[in-house]
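Input set for joint prediction.
Command: fold jointly, output tokens.
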Amino acid sequence: MTDISAFPAQAASASDYIALLKPRVMSLVVFTGIVGYLCAPGAGDIVLGFSAILALAVGAGASGALNMWYDSDIDARMARTASRPVPSGRVSREEALGLGVTLSVLSVLTMILAAGLFAAALLAFTIFFYAVVYTMWLKRSTPQNIVIGGLSGALPPAIAWAAKTGGLALDPVILVAIIFMWTPPHFWALALTQSRDYRNAGVPMLPVTDGAKSTRLHILAYSLILAPLACAPLATGLGGPLYAVVSIAGGIAFVALAVRVAFSKAGDLAEGGEVYAAKAENKSALHLFIFSIFYLTALFAALLIERIAGAVLG
Amino acid sequence: MTEFLKLTPEQEKARKRRNVWIALALFAFMVLVFLITVTQMKAGVLNRPL
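tokens >
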């Protein structure tokens, strides 16, 4: 018998199914994955390399669909996510689950064929970690949700490296560590401005559980670890002169913005405060959030440019 | 008793569009598996002992 609830009241368009795959997260995964693949030693094969990155992208999309399936109740209660395909009723929860599971299986199978068991196991672990450990468990139970859960977003360069070489080394671990340490200040900067939404949705983000001041200090602490860590590729020879400029200048700017957030009142007025005053105070957190995206992109772009330049110039 | 669900014309159109996309995606997956297999086999052929 057909389950009527499986048919959403409104007809979904192709863009709704694409939105289920969280294309912005997917683009970061693809970008860091490509850099990880190109930084790995060896020539690689274009068909196998393309297939591995595609599998990585589809696996990330599958995780996004599973996240939207499970979190549709939370998404419906938050302004930032209420218009997503599931809470808005354009795609049913069953469809999101079906798409997520199907794409998970296909992406891991493709990775097995293109790159072998080790890279496929890493990909499967990443999907499991994001969909089950982060989404189903950590997100609703601890303010450390995005710290631990950030591992799934950090692993793509290591998966791509493993896809090319069949193993891991210090360099991909450093790339993973950089994204891992970047994730908390990035998300907490955004969370400072959205804490009312998170509280209403019952998500224990750090500004909700520990308050804005503690969050601002956490952001500064993680930034102070991230900035020198991002320079580590210089010590191993992974990063060259361009990377040196980007990582050092970017790190100084990142810490400067984090210090500005620490001494601001960002997040203090999020609840019940006067709207314009709250917006003004939150500016420093928003600036850090926007800069953090530019910073991570610039770090990996520097590695990418150095690899391409190295290949062209021999 | 069997219950039949009556879809609106808009839902039927959406279902048709979905089916086309699924067919295209499956075809693309098939081509990808073919290309990967050929590439892996080529590598195997080149590496075989003479």
